[in-house]
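User: My collaborator sent over this chain with a note saying "see what the structure looks like." That's all I know about it. Can you take a look?
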Amino acid sequence: MGGGGRYLSVLVGPLSLLFLLIWFRRDWREVAAQAADFAAPFLPFLLACLLVAVVHPAATIGDPFSRVFWALFIFLAAARLPLSRAAVFSAAAVGASVYCLVAIRDVFFLGAVRAGNDVNEIVFAETAMLTGGLAIVGALTAKGASPALRILWSLLGGAGLFAVALSGSRGPLLATFLLGGLAIAHGWRQGHHKAIVAATLTLAVAVGAALLYAPLADRIVLAGIETQDYFSASSPTLTSIGIRLELWRITLESLPQQPVFGYGYSTVGDLATRLPALKFLPLELLFGFQHFHADWAHALMAGGLVLLIGLSASIVLLARTARHDLARLWLLGAMVVFGLTDLAFFRKPTLTLFIAAWTLLAASSPRADHVT
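Assistant: Without extra context I'll predict from the sequence alone. Here is the result:
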């Protein structure tokens, strides 16, 4: 759970390629056109990563190349199967419910302070939020779905959000507001006033439940206190929020010295030899941090404006591609929100889940919203 990204490149991609080689008998020009349409939005990000890797071989940029490469074959194979959106939404709902069960086990049976299934709690929360939100979007958008199925998807999606609460991760929880906003906008555009009311109530219940869960409520209050302490203190505060804000300050302050390709760092400790301002961190944190705890700050420091512009361009192109697809807009928007407080596009597990879900949704047939 949360760490199974390796299966995308080790198993699913090669099997999809094998499927194409054995069963596919169409004009390869058509295949090339479909492949180009699918891969084009990712190219600015991949090209920027490639340029940064050439200039800074030690730079930490994750592994977007293999993810998109194998996703391309998965897309071409899945597009030729009778894949429905209902199957994707059901898979997301099952995944969200499993994350909920694991979170309940961690907190209420194993006595963990924060649920995480022995992986990073933030990554755990991000994957639970992606799957839970996707199930809820399915309940809103799947045409022809029975009321019972919509309710089931909503409940299991809500279970995923509950897993996020049990993880105590505040950053991923911000995506709840995005989910509510997308749901309300969808209901408004479709003229479904009941859906708007339901989405608003669901968002209110989710926020209320989070505030009633004492450990998470305490961490939310603590975030406000830490923010206030950072801006009122004369020196950097060594708190979760304080460290993140100080890393952002150092990023913006140091960017003019290396604006094009950034610093190409591998660890924060390595970068501290060139940026003494980072030595505000204790040694165990200085040499323990691998990144700047935000996609955007990490992009600037690892690859400068080249990497930031490449990532931003791909996000814009992906949003344009999915502008009429609420499910993929949710996935993309959630990743952007995650990237405000941690790594998402540069972290393998989260990026893997995003690309896998995006690929399956893109491959679904024109009738994919209909449940048969």
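A starting point for your reply to your collaborator: The radius of gyration is 21 Å.
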